[in-house]
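User: Show me a protein chain along with its predicted structure.
Assistant: Here is one chain, sequence first, then structure tokens.
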Amino acid sequence: MAEFNKKMQNFVDKIRVFGLKFYMWPYWFYYQNKFFKESYWPAYKNEIHKKPFVQILWELIKMFFVWRCLPYHYFRYSLYKREFGKKEIWNFIPESVIFYRILPKINRNNFLLDNKIVFERILKNSNIKFPETVLKIEKRTILDKEDHSINSPAELEAIIKKVKSNKIFIKPADCGSGGAGISSFHKKNNSFINASGQKLDSNYLKSLKLNGEWIIQEGLENEGFLRDLHHSSLNSFRVMTYFNKRPEVIYSILKIGNKNAETDNAHTGGIYVGVNLKTYKLMDKAFDEDLNEFKIHPLTKVSFSNKRVDRFQEVIDAANKAAILFPSLSLIGWDIALTKEGAFILEGNSSPGLTIIQRTNRGMKKLYDIIK
């Protein structure tokens, strides 16, 4: 039976690797064209420090044949700028190469990360810090943090009254991405109320459980300059680990909220800045999803230059400890919050955002060379 199961797993893996690029091609093509029209092309037209047109054309043609895909990333990362030399443009890897050729071969059992309830149960049995779970909604059943079903409004109210944090986040449990679907509730007179004035109670959760599975967790807070950068959001680190014989942190950035949003995701207006893994200092320049660049935060006016994350080693240690728990997933992008209580793992991403890593680190050649 074991031999049969192994053969079945190998068959499924081969089908997944072979079929993914054909299944996802229409979505990827639509996605790239949409952003090309909305962001990449306007940025290209407005750029005054472009390379000569003949050079741009030659680089595009060469990339097409080398990478064997449409080189949208040439415009995504503004490689037409004169600041990117002939060698440096090859440090940037097309998303289609990573997502459809590499990740399916090195990452398996993605659901261990993509399902936040499964992820929470794995971390619960380790000594890794993660946000305190208040409730879960799984298979249309409301559960407490120990997976006991909640059978009455009185039980639910007693659990909510014990919450220590002043903020609660409700997140989609299955394949949530980019902050989509996340809602927050703030504490008011021993109750939690959202922006629409709804109270977190049994009636709200009954309506919620009709729309998928959810995890409800206490909010966390930054301290020091991490909080000063943007008060409204929890500003977290995206830390990329690669697991071969042991986990290794190869890239990191700081995601920062903007426009008084409560999340730090790029899709909700957030900006991101690289972290130097040798000095633990922020890099001088931050970016947003529309190719804008910032040397100071556009809202709070706090500068990024020479800002050092003194306890960043705690973030690295947390990422490496977490990576060991998921050996079948070689490449993981961890979202980690640094608070006065330590580094907290927020979630792991089996398909980590490449744009924010490549733009801040001027490519991902190190990762590509390791995988090759």
